Amino acid sequence: MIDNTHGSTPKKPRKIINKSKTKVPMREQAPKDRVLNFEEVPLGYTEVEAHQEALRCIDCRTKPCMSGCPVGIDIPAFLGLVSQKDFVGALKKIKEKNFLPAICGRVCPQEDQCEMVCTLNKPERGREPGGIGRVERFLGDYAMKHNLSITPKVASPTGKTVAIIGSGPSGLTAASDLAQKGHNVTVFEALHKPGGVLFYGIPEFRMPKKILMREIEGLKDMGVKFIMNYPIGKAEPLDSIRERFDAVFVGTGAGLPWFLGIPGENLNGVYSANEFLTRVNLMGGYKFPNEADTPIKRIKRIAVIGAGNTAMDSARTAKRLRPEVVYLVYRRSRLEMPARVEEIHHAEQEGIEFNLLHSPIEIVDDGKGAVAAIRCQEMKLGVPDESGRRRPEPIEGKVRDFAVDTVVVAIGQGPNPLLSADCPELKRNEKRGTIEINAEAQTSFDNVFAGGDIVTGGATVILAMGQGRVAADAMHRYLTTGTAVQTKPEPESVCPNLL
Ligand code: FAD
Ligand code: SF4
After folding, report:
1. Ligand 2 in contact with 460 (CB < 6 A)?
2. Whose CA is closest to atom 7 on ligand 2?
3. Right CATH number for 259-411 from 3.30.70.370, 3.40.50.150, 3.50.50.60, 3.90.420.10?
4. What is the Å distance from ligand 2's center to 69 Cα?
C-alpha cells in the first residue's frame, strides 16, 4: 500500500512543451469489430502517450480548468507530475479530490467541464483542449495495472454508525469520506450488485465493470459493509434505519423511467431504457440461456427513442445484440442532441440510423399484442422554447412508419420513489419528486442527509460524487458536534458551484 497523505507538487517549472494543436489520439476498436463484442471501445493511453499529452499543458497562470471541474481537482499539478513521469505522485494528487479517476476519466462530460474552459481550447484556430479526461483515465488504469492500492487512511473509530441508502456514485463517495473519518459505515442497496447506474446503466463497452468492482473492494478494505438486495422502504422502513443508525445518507438516484404517453406503449416488445440496459448490463441477458437466467428479446429491428447518453447507450447496446437495423428517433435536430459528442460519433460509426426531426405518435400493434412499427410525425424547428432550444413543430400531413419489433423509450428518468412512498414525512419537491435538502444537505429529518440524482434529478456522475462529499462533511459535523451547520471555516474540499 502506498502512503496517501497527500500528493506531491511538481518540483520545478516544466520547460518542454508539446506544441501539437490536437490531443494525442487514443486507439479504439474498429467499428466493424466492436459491434460484435461488449469490450471497451477506446483502448486508453500508453505511458508514452499520456506523457506526450501532459506535455501539451502550458501550465497557464489562470488555470481555468480547475474551476471547470465540479470537485476542484488540481489539474495543472497532476498533469505536471505526469509530464515528469511521476505517475504515482499524479495519482495521489487526483485522489485528494476524486477517488474514482478511472471512472470519471471515462464518463465525465469533460467537453462541458474542465476541457471546455481549458486555455488551449480554441476550436476557431483548430486547437483542442488538453486531454484531461484521457490522462486521468490513464492514471486510474495505471493504478490497476500496477496493483497500486492507494487506499486512504482511516481515522480511529468514532463509535458512530452511518447508513448509506443506495450504492451509486453519491453513496459510494459519502461512504468513502465517512469511513475515512472513522465512522462505522453500512451501505444498503436494493439490487444485487453495487454501483448504481455505473453498474446497471452504463454498458461494459463504455466502462468495464471490473474497474468499479475494484473501487468497491477498496471501500470494503476501509471497513465499509455492503448489504445487497435490501430496498429500504420495502425490506425495512426508513424510520427503523433512522433509529438503528446515528446518521443516514439517501442516494437513491433517478431510476424511475419516463414514458411518452402515446398509444401502444404497453405492447409486447416495448422496454424502458432502464429495463433494457439492466437486462443486458446487470443480468447479462445477451448470454441467456447458457450463462444467464434473464432473457432479452431476440431483436430484428429496433427503434430507440431519445438522444441523451441513455439513448446512445441503449442504441449501441442493441447493436451488439446483432439485429438487422437500429434506428434512433429524436424529435429535434442534431444540434439539440443532449448526448456527449463522443457517444454520438461512436453511435454513427457503429451504423445506428439517426432519424432526427421525427416525433413518435403511436406504437403500432401487430394484431397479436406485439410491436409491428413505430409511427412518427415529421417535425421542423420553430422558435426557441423556455429551455433555449428551438421548439419542434409538426409538418402537417407528414407521418411515417418504421417497421420494428422492439422499441426502447429513453427520454429520461425521474427520482426513485420507493423510499419517499414509504415515508411521506420526508419532504419532497411536489412537482419534481426530488428530496428537498438545506445548505448542509440535510433533509426534513435532522439525522437524514441526501445527495445525487434523488436531489438534483438526472445529472452526472461527478456531480453526484460532489454532492456525496458535501453531505459527508455535514454528516461528520452533525455526528461530532451535534449540528450539521458549519461554525468555523473548513478547508475548501469541493467546487463552490456544487453548493
Ligand atoms: P444512482 O447511480 O442512480 O444510484 C442509486 C442507487 O440506489 C441504485 O443502485 C439503486 O438501486 C439504489 N436504490 C434506489 N432506491 C433504493 C432503496 N429504496 N434502497 C436501497 N437502494 C436503493 N453521467 C455521466 O457523468 N456520464 C455519463 O456518461 C453518463 N451516462 C449515463 C448513462 C445512463 C444509461 C444513465 C441512466 C445515466 C448516465 N449518467 C451519466 C448519469 C449518472 O450515471 C447519474 O447522474 C449518477 O449515477 C447518479 O448517481 P446517484 O448516486 O445519485 O444514483
Ligand atoms: Fe475533468 Fe471530470 Fe476529471 Fe474533474 S473529474 S478533472 S471534470 S474529467
Report:
1. no
2. 69
3. 3.50.50.60
4. 5
Q: Whose CA is nearest to atom 6 of ligand 2?
A: 69
Tell me the ligand closest to 227's alpha carbon.
1
- Whole-angstrom Cα distance, residue 92 to residue 78? 9
Cα of 164 vs centre of ligand 1, distance in Å, is 14
Distance, CA 168 to ligand 1 centroid (Å)? 5
Index of the ligand 1 atom closest to the CA of residue 340: 28
- Tell me the per-residue pLDDT of 137-191, one tens digit each, with 9 for 90 and over: 999 999 989 988 766 788 999 999 999 999 999 999 999 999 999 999 999 999 9
The C-alpha R_g of the chain, in whole angstroms, comes to: 23
What is the CATH number that goes with domain 31-145? 1.10.1060.10
Please tell me the distance from the alpha carbon of residue 138 to that of residue 87, in angstroms, as a whole number. 9
The 3-state DSSP class for residue 448 equals strand
- Model pTM? 0.90
The reply to whether 259-411 shares the fold of 161-255+416-481 is: yes
Cβ of 252 less than 6 Å from ligand 1: yes
For residue 391, give the H/E element and its range.
Answer: strand 390-403
For β-strands 406-409 and 225-227, DSSP reports them as unpaired
